[in-house]
Amino acid sequence: MTDNKTTNGAMNGSCHCGTIRFTVTLVEGLEKPRRCTCSFCRMRGAVVVSAMLPDLTITQGSEALTLYQFNTKKAEHYFCSKCGIYTHHRRRSNPNHFSINVACLEGVSPFDFECVPVLDGVVHHSDRPGGPAYVTAGLLRYEKLPEA
Ligand SMILES: [Zn+2]
């Protein structure tokens, strides 16, 4: 996972059908993958990493991006209207951040991560005044089978 970056450290990404293409520079690289237990994320099932808003550039297909919002309508969830794949969302908990679907990043698979923290999104931290920003609900582990 080191040879898939462009010269300025940005990574290339796309949806499944290739209509949406983007470049992104991640805040902490691939060091802090996560999932979330909220009503939407538990269905979507994507592993995500963070990027600052100005560090994501949709280079192609922005007209095909569809916005989905629910509940407080603060988070902005984007997906490709052609293939349905979730690419990124603007976070409710940190509106300065996008979360990026790692599966859309060139050369990256959600199964590259042996252990992914799962954040408690049921009791959102915005609804937990004075509490910690993030509460980890659990860990999701992926174990590769030994090579045959
Ligand atoms: Zn697509």
Write the layout of secondary structure elements.
Layout: E1 11-14, E2 21-24, E3 35-36, H1 41-44, E4 48-52, E5 56-60, E6 65-68, E7 76-80, E8 86-90, E9 97-101, E10 115-119, E11 136-141
Parallel strand pairs: 3-10
Antiparallel strand pairs: 1-2, 2-5, 4-9, 6-7, 7-8, 8-9, 10-11
The structure holds zinc ion (ZN).
Structural commentary:
- The protein has one helix at residues 41-44, and strands at residues 11-14, 21-24, 35-36, 48-52, 56-60, 65-68, 76-80, 86-90, 97-101, 115-119, 136-141.
- The protein is an all-beta fold and 148 residues long.
- It contains one helix and eleven strands; from the N terminus they run E-E-E-H-E-E-E-E-E-E-E-E.
- It has one domain (11-141): Metal Binding Protein, Guanine Nucleotide Exchange Factor, Chain A.
- It binds zinc ion (ZN).
- The site of zinc ion has 9 residues, from loops.
Q: Rough shape?
A: globular
Residue windows where pLDDT falls under 50 for at least 5 positions: none
Q: Note the total helix count.
A: 1
Strand content: 25-35%
The radius of gyration over CA amounts to: 15 Å
Domain module tally:
1
Major pleated sheet? 5 strands, antiparallel
The molecules bound to the chains, other than polymers, are: zinc ion
Which range best describes the helical content: under 10%, 10-25%, 25-40%, 40-55%, 55-70% or over 70%? under 10%
Mean pLDDT: 90
CATH topology: Metal Binding Protein, Guanine Nucleotide Exchange Factor, Chain A
CATH architectural designation: Beta Complex
Structural class designation: mainly beta
Task: Give me the strand/helix succession.
Answer: EEEHEEEEEEEE
